[in-house]
Amino acid sequence: MRTSAFLTDASVCIGCKACEVACKEWNHIPDDGFEWTGQSYDNTHALGASTWRHVLFLEEKKPMGPQLAGIEEPFRWQFLSDVCKHCENAGCLEACPTGAIVRTELKSVFVQQDVCNGCGYCVVSCPFGVVDKNHEVGTAFKCTFCYDRQRDGLMPACAKACPTRSIRFGEWEELRQEAQVRVKELQDRGYNDAQIYDPTGSSVGGTHAIFLILGQPEAYNLPPAPEVPTIHMKSAWGAALFSALVVVLVVFLAFAL
Amino acid sequence: MAANPKITEDRLDALREEAARTGKVQDHGIAPVGSPFPKPAAAVSYHGNPVLKPPTWTWQVPLYFFVGGVAGISAVIALAAHLFGNAGVLRAGLWIGLLGALVSAPLLIADLGRPSRFLNMLRVFKLQSAMSVGAWTLSGYSSAVGLAVVCHELILAGYGNNFLLVLEWAAEISAAVSGLILASYTSVLLGVTAIPVWSENRRLVPVVFLAGGLGSAAGVLELLGFLLPVTQFIGIVASAVETLVAIVIELRGRYVDRPLREGTVGWLTRAGAALAGPTSLLLRVFWGHSSMARYVAAVCFVTGALISRYAWIAAGRVSSRDPQALFRIQRPAHNSAAH
Amino acid sequence: MAENHPVGFQWVIEARERGAKVIHVDPRFSRTSAMADIWAPLRAGSDILFLGALIHYVLENKKDFREYVTHYTNASIILPEEFKDTEDLSGVFSGWDAKNRRYDSSAWLYGACVEGGRVAPKSAGPHSGHCKDGAGAGADLADCECDPTLSHPRCVYQVLKKHYSRYTPELVERFCGVPRERFLKIAETFCSASGPEKTGAICYALGWTQQSKGPQIIRAAAILQLLLGNVGRPGGGILALRGHASIQGSTDIPTLYDILPGYLPMPNLGLDSHNLADYVAIHRDPTGWWWNFDKYIVSLLKAYYGEGAKKENDWGFNWLPRVTGDHSHQGYFLEMLDGKVEGLFVMGQNPAVAAPNSRVERKALSKLKWLVVRDMVELETASFWYDSPEVERDELRPEGIATEVFLLPAAGHAEKDGCFTNTQRLLQWHQKAVDPPGDARSETWFMYHLGRRLKEKAKQDPRPRNAGLSALTWDYSVGGTMQEPKVEEVLQEINGYKVADRTLVSGFNELKADGSTACGCWIYTGVFPRPGENRANQRNSQDLWGHGWGFAWPADRRILYNRASARPDGRPWSERKKLVWWDEQNREWTGLDVPDFTRTKAPDYKPPKHAQGDEALAGDKPFILHPDGTGWIFAPKGLADGPLPTHYEGLEAPVSNPLYPDQQSNPAAMREERPDNRYASSPDDRFPYVMSTYRLTEHHTSGAMSRMLPHLAELQPEFFCEISPELASERGIENGGWVTVMTPRGIVEARALVTRRMRPLPINGKMLHQVGVPYHWGSRGLVKGDSANDLVAISEEPNVRIMEAKGILCDVSPGRRARGKAALDQLNAHLGRK
Q: Which of residues 162-221 of B touch A (CB under 8 A)?
């Protein structure tokens, strides 16, 4: 069974937002309201229940590789299309008490809309802040990795719409290799801060949405060292057990003394 | 750092602004003792927007935390009362436990986005999901304490027999064990999330919630008239712990704890801590002989514990909105996701 | 290009990834700039200064592609002594008639028409800019003296050098705002893309066209490309990025008043319209491909009038309308404003938002007796009578507007068959996927049935004025429940056919002037060569050039003038850049593209004396539509405002013209100044900043479609103005706040987007602020806002009558504008300041 993945490459993203629109059109997602943010050209703000692709706009006083842009000081404007990471170890999936969130045969993370009862626990368990509850419908929503399209042999709507192939879709392992090649190529061309964002070393264990970014992850609101919250289980339950034992002791002491 | 006379907030702001604008500061800065240096280089984020999503839980959830805590610990107290022969406390404890259970489920169901699907909580059992553990625990606890009450009342009413006695003991023990889990799992629920102020306090919140449940259970008993040495002892210990925790949070001064110390939520946290902590403690220690004082102490503790549940949820909301809270925990990143 | 042609821009990215260098010059830093290798900020309106300096650089440093220039351009032609340049006449060329504010462009001719005294061609008049050679008369440019060494002081090359001698990098720094090193870096980079092994391309859009000297700016780029030898070669040329999916098509099969299909001129009353013979004599060039002009006009007339078109009645030539004045958009809207127009059809357009001086446009609509609007939504042009700003300001009252507005629903592009012609001259058929809902109908349906009904009425009314209408061929099949005409039949008619048996023709070489062929548009011939073979509908790309996918006019030639991709002797310039070449064995041109040249004409062909048409062009003259076959560095005809581009400031400017103090702006441009279309002075203390309107990726033109769709509306929900941090700090404007923008024409409010992407430029020693104003908003839709075109004046560039929307003067102040009538008071108060 193939394992599919996204490789999203900021160096060729032109910020056109075709991915955002294609995703919404295919999945019949409603609009998020018409609020202007004043944050460069980003009025989408963040991923959420009604936004599954979000294009970021970064205006920075840094050079973009060898580009001659700024005049008296360096300047660059770069774009990136953010999406659900479909983590190998997914916080939302671990947290879901109804079993609504499952790992599909494509290895993507999928919220079954007929099972979810809207408890909201996945929302606070995602280290990337992706999944959210739709308050009108009552259940949690996020990128489905175009499960329906992939099962029919099609690529996700966003990858299909992307005109510059900034969103690449394919076999996970192949895209991982491609990312390695690409980041080296970019660094050779002078993009000194080109890097791959793929938290393989953390408890998340790698994601099915790999990103090629320029500069530190924080600039994209990507956590530099994301962890799946279940790593805290031991210490949290440990403290709870300890406290519970103390409670028992106190209660018994209270009666005994 | 000798002769710089202008040690004012304005100067600090000006330095921060200059650093943010140009990336460096021309003049040497100032370092008033105890104040943070301007550190603009660290504060990178995407337009200052939140990384995480805020909790979607409504008012029913903190209330449930409180009620569940009271109910769960009541079962423990009831069991101890049974062991030590205090029939009044036993009966009261069981009934408090049952009523708490009966109120808990509707509270949780009301918070769901799709309440009609509440039974889906019992589709699976996942140890790694505190909410799954909690759903099953509440179910188990409700059954146990319900059974215990039925048995107890039946026995009281004269239908007692050995079988019922054993059943009651079994139910009480089950209720006590599951009650402890009920009272404590909610702290794990918060601790095992991505929200910085919760996950970074995952060892502390169980202490807070259990102390709160303990003291509140005792407080409720007192308000029902059980002004006993038992409840006084429990009350003193609980409020002492609450006081200690509050001091730790204030003194620790961690960035991630800012929601607990600053702004509206900071005041909410302090209000809760003050009522459940020093106020209750002092009243009990110095005026413990007065029933009035004890009633007031009980009310203070219960109120404080309830407020503090709301404060912790609200703190989570505030914490989720601050990208730096998340980044600072992860930097320096020994397992950097970027390579 | 990334903003407005994102799908096409993927190929720029692809080229960049393969090592091409992308240079972007623009007043603001857009999404295109973000992807470029080099960006330079530019003062809007100073483009000719910039391009002229590049030309100067090429000439000074001898970077021109000498062999190409000598053989393929008119650089070697020696101009008559009488011709005087702007350097000689303080900013005008010879032939300037100051009284009538027009040029007599015969002053720029060279060649046989100059022998024995000047021949004044019977010009077709001032209203004819879009057609072939600006409908200049056919000129005999043969028999010219040349200097192949390009050193004769009167040769075009030297005149060019003198013309641009003062366009230096220093001047660019001082008046364009481009730092000298950045300019030189650009010059060096771009000019290295020249020669046998390398080419470079220039892409432009409305930043160049929407100026009072737009065509001249493009001409400057053309001169640069000719000097560098980049025209007609792969990876070279000039790509005009047009504004809609099929706007190229709407000039090919025109919806413009001054041209007929295939860029044939519309007759101008009294000038070329007496009879067909005169018309042909005037427009037909004795040499070059336009010698075939008569075949095209006659075939067009046969297509229009069928059997009614006979030799005896000049093939129905007299049934064609005559241009009698300025019927351009600006022209007739001003007449409309003055109450002289009764009715108007508006189909797929939104002048209430998208046309310049939109306040005047909306008021003009209120003077109509009837207005038919066909669109998919009720856009501002249809709703002006009740929800325009004029109604809000009490300038118009609904009860006082007598215009009867008919709003008819239109089908969307997936609901009808049809064809788009894009920026690349590529015809692509699109197929109907679903029926339009309810009463919505396609344009074809509407025009066909309207015409059918009018023809029925004409049958009852035999006055001579209806003869043409009655004669129109209107016999398309209709089908389906909606009686939809078969659009493929229209395409076949456009392709052309033999009248006798209706066989389709496969190329314009088959067209005749004897009435035996009919053709709706000669440049499209070949798109439907056989029944069932709709080449616009083919989707089987065979090669790098896309042959097999769609049809590029003319004759599926993907690169125009591709003879220039081979050396004068017929071999490719290089293996790397080969496109077409001469096959000595088979004695024909062959290659990777369809040769844009007579297939059997040898590279060493020398025309006999007095040869005509294409036979008069030598085998090394690629520009076959010019009577001398050369690329025109110096344009002897075709333009109303000069044979060489000259830097003029805009109609409003922040500085005086540094080169020609006596000639501030384009002398031939028309300001149409009137009380409701005022101008600022140059400079003007009340309007110290320079603004340009432009587009965003997220919206489409006037926003009529995109503001109604939630998924697009939410991407850019509010009208904003892009401002530099310096200007923001100077005027106390905060990012996210509101600003009011004013020009002498109007007052709008917008959100303030303070960004480093806008920057003040040091112009002549002073900091000049530029602001950016996207124009997508109006009073209707899910998201609403003021219309930027309220700020723009109605002006007319002399060739094509386009308005100047870039580089105009404005003021920007913090805060929202006053509401209702008070907004006009606010504007007037500001105008009254000194």
A: 180-181, 183-185, 187-189, 191-195, 198-199, 202-207, 209-211, 213-214
